[in-house]
Structure formats: structure tokens, C-alpha cells
Amino acid sequence: MAGGLEPHLAALRQELGGPAVLSVLVALIAVAITFLLWRFVQGRKSSRKAVLLLGLCDAGKTLLFARLLSGRYRDTQTSITDSSAVYRLSQDKSTNVTLIDLPGHESLRLQFLERFKAAARAIVFVVDSVAFQREVKDVAEFLYQVLVDSTVLRNAPALLIACNKQDVTMAKSAKLIQQQLEKELNTLRVTRSAAPTSLDGSATGGPAQLGKKGKDFDFSQLPMKVEFVECSARGSKGEEGEADLEALQKWLVKVA
Predict the structure, then answer these.
(1) Hey, which of 76, 100, 138, 202 would disulfide with 62, CB 3.0 to 4.6 Å?
(2) 231-238: long-range pairs with CB below 8 Å, 24+
(3) Mean pLDDT, rounded, of the chain
(4) What is the mean pLDDT of residues 246-250?
């Protein structure tokens, strides 16, 4: 095949004035293709403007959602549907994301995640730092389902583990929560013998490999950037005090 193309390349070199000009032309074409691919990827990313708030029931997602939007405390109850609102990250009205608070009930959470996962620019997974020790297996189970989902793996949205309720004395630290989650997720991937499926029930083409084969799992092995922060939607002074969400707010600015 190469021999058949050589006469045409030789003729093209002659018309263009030599191999140097042809090399420049090929380089320009390569740059143009790279630029178009970059624009395509960036366009897909910019079209995803949602930040999903996920977590188990009573983790504090809805209060966190209300605090981010209004700064004020409000009584909340277990959500049975989603809530969404535009969250401005600065005085510049063009800099904003859509916050979507999804139900944490076991019978609802995957159903709502299925609906919104493709639009996720980022995910905030809220953990109850006080109840974490007794809920760690349930937390890891839900997080595992999120991390092996085909759409999440493909889009790789930024992921924040928000360790909420840090105003309570018995709250576990973000470092301990990270260590325990890595241990539980490692156990889950070993014990899952059946091939995982995506949230819409379609096969992913074989068992999803969470992390690196042959190594204990840690969050740095994932295709998305994962960070942990400590926060308190309620605040140290309860209803009258201000929430401690500074680290979360800085992260939202960074991923917008």
C-alpha cells in the first residue's frame, strides 16, 4: 500500500515545492484536528452544568442545599423528589451551576441519579460524619454503584466527599472517613463476582474494574478527581449560627 501511495506523494511534493512544505502542511492538519477534538470535548463538558447532591437519608443534603442558596437555616424532611436551583458562584451572573438535591432513600436514589447523571459536571456526595461508623457499609454500597456506572466513568465529573455535621463532637474526621471508605470499596470490588450493570440496566461489557487490578483501592486510581472536605450545614451554634461551608464553596468555584 505504501508503494502505491509513493508516486502520489512524490507528485504532491513536487507541486508544493518539496518535502519541507508537505511536512508543514501535515503538521497544520494535525494541529487543526487536535483543536477540533479539544473544542468538542470542551463543548461537551460546558454543556454539563449540574452539580448533584447525593448521599443517604439524613446526611444533611437538603439543609446544605438550602444553606448554599439562601445562607439561612430551615427545617427539612426526607426528600421524595429532586429539588434544583441556579447557584451563582460570584457577582458575575454568567458564572453559575445548577444545584440538584436528589433523594437519598434507598428505593429512590438510583432512579433519580439515572435521570440526572448525564448532566453532572460535578458530584457532591454528602456523608453524615456522626452516623458514619454504623452506616459505612451502606455509604460505600451507594458510592460503589455511582463509581461503576458507565456514564459516570465516561464523563468523569469532579467528585467531592462532603463530611457533614462536623459541629457535633462525635463526628469522624475526613481522613478517617476516606480511609474507611477505601477499605469498604476495596472489599466490595473483591466480593462482586457478577458483571456490574449501568443504572439503566444495560451491561457494561464485563466487570467494571474499580481502581487498579492487583492493588488495594484508593481514590487516586479513579478517572475523576476526588477530594474530601469537612463541613457543617447546621453550624456550631445550631439554627441561629452560620453554616461552615467555606471549603465546599471554594470547591464549587474551582469546578464550575
Answers:
(1) 76
(2) 231/64, 231/162, 231/163, 231/164, 231/166, 232/164, 232/165, 232/166, 232/167, 233/60, 233/63, 233/64, 233/67, 233/164, 233/165, 234/60, 234/63, 234/73, 234/165, 234/167, 235/73, 235/167, 236/167, 238/73
(3) 83
(4) 95
Q: What is the pLDDT of residue 23?
A: 62
pLDDT in the model for residue 78: 81
Domain regions of the chain by residue span: 50-194+210-255
CATH of region 50-194+210-255, choose from 3.40.1160.10, 1.10.940.10, 3.40.50.300, 3.60.15.10: 3.40.50.300
Q: Which residue has the higher pLDDT, 197 or 143?
A: 143
The 10 Å Cβ neighbour count of residue 104 is 23
Please state the pTM of the whole predicted model.
0.77
Return all residues near 252 (Cβ < 8 A) that are at least 6 apart: 51, 68, 87, 89, 97, 122
Cell representation of residue 147:
463509581
CA–CA distance, 160 with 127 (Å, rounded to integer): 10
165/20 Cα distance (integer angstroms): 65
Q: Give 48-72 pLDDT, tens digit per residue.
A: 789 999 999 999 999 999 999 988 8
**CB 253: neighbour CB atoms within 10 A?**
11
67, 89, 153 from 222: Cα distances, Å: 30, 27, 9
Q: What is the pLDDT of residue 6?
A: 65
pLDDT at residue 133 tops 70: yes
- Is residue 5 within 8 A of residue 13, CB to CB? The reply is no
C-alpha cell at 199: 443504572
Separation CA 169–CA 232 (nearest Å): 12
